[in-house]
Design goal:
Elements (H helix, E strand, L loop, with lengths): L3 E11 L8 E15 L3 E6 L12 H12 L7 E7 L9 H16 L6 H12 L5 H6 L2 E7 L2 E7 L6 E7 L5 H6 L7 H20 L5 H4 L6 H7 L3 H10 L4 E4 L6 E5 L3 H14 L4 E6 L7 E2 L2
Parallel strand pairs: 3-4
Antiparallel strand pairs: 1-2, 1-11, 2-4, 2-5, 5-6, 7-9, 7-10, 8-9
Length: 299
């Protein structure tokens, strides 16, 4: 049993345009979880330090406890310290980072009884879909599907020089709210539209032939409905593309917009922010890149 644990977990972006609930990518923005034996306490630094709970309802702590529930052992009393850099309720996987951070730290303190696959399955079951949890744990671009109760994931390679620009609005989009506006049924032509683009997205990333990303990141299953809730989205995506982005889409359930590029990052970020400002929206720009590294236990 390890007494002092440090776990680092990356931000993620789900859907990637057409891959609704099944595609996600890890980003080089990291949260850190530190756990040590001692009287129960929770400390939060960085994003969410004022609003996130510091009692037993904290998601990192609940996930930590989940490990001991799974192995039928008593939860040890711990000091929990979180350093958060992933924006909350902005479609960058903050809840998945909390889940994986808690599960991995609990598993480490328990002596590593759970495999990576078991941690992934527990996390995906809690999240109800794997598109954030899989890249948060495994890194890179991940495809996640269910065959009945079995979770299957597959990694997708991507060019090492691919860059990411994120416009992160001050406007939040809680995931539950963003999901509730989606239609329960979709038109066949919309399903076909997304199937083709999901396949093209994977092909573009694997081959490094990115000129089709402008088509491969388009969507008809969730972005049109979320556009009604988040009016500036279309204008910000359009601004990114006109500034030279290879592809752009709503990150997860939003409200962040992600653009892929191999250059002109600052121009793209400026134009995204300008389009948002013209729609009466303030926010921040994050310049980063995909990461092939998933959550890890710091030695």
């Amino acid at each position: 049993m390890i007494d002092n644990i440090v776990v680092k977990v990356p931000a993620t972006s789900a859907n990637m345009g057409p891959g609704f609930d099944s595609l996600g990518i890890a980003l080089d923005v990291w949260n850190e979880v530190r756990i040590s034996k001692g009287p129960f306490s929770i400390k939060i630094d960085g994003i969410g330090e004022e609003e996130l709970p510091k009692d037993s309802s904290n998601l990192v702590y609940k996930s930590f406890c989940k490990v001991f529930e799974e192995i039928d052992e008593i939860v040890p009393e711990v000091n929990l310290s979180c350093t958060n850099r992933i924006p909350l309720t902005r479609g960058m996987g903050s809840s998945s980072a909390a889940l994986i951070g808690g599960l991995m730290s609990g598993n480490a303190m328990a002596g590593l009884p759970l495999s990576t696959s078991e941690i992934l399955n527990i996390g995906a079951k809690i999240e109800k879909h794997p598109d954030n949890v899989a890249p948060a744990l495994l890194g890179g671009v991940q495809i996640g599907i269910y065959d009945q109760e079995e979770l299957i994931t597959a990694s997708v390679t991507f060019p090492e020089d691919l860059k990411v620009v994120l416009y992160v609005p001050n406007q939040i989009m809680p995931t539950d709210q963003a999901r509730n506006i989606l239609a329960s049924e979709v038109a066949r032509e919309d399903a076909v539209y997304n199937i083709g683009r999901s396949a093209l997205l994977v092909q573009s990333l694997v081959t490094g032939d990115l000129h089709n990303l402008k088509y491969a990141t388009q969507d008809m299953l969730h972005q049109p409905q979320r556009q009604k809730q988040f009016f500036p989205m279309k204008n910000i995506i359009k601004a990114a593309m006109e500034a030279g982005a290879l592809g752009a889409f709503l990150s997860g359930a939003g409200s962040s917009i992600l653009a892929f590029t191999k250059g002109r990052e600052y121009t793209i970020g400026y134009e995204m922010a300008d389009a948002a400002m013209k729609s009466g929206l303030d926010g921040d720009i994050i310049f980063t890149s995909p990461t092939s590294k998933g959550a890890y236990l710091e030695k």
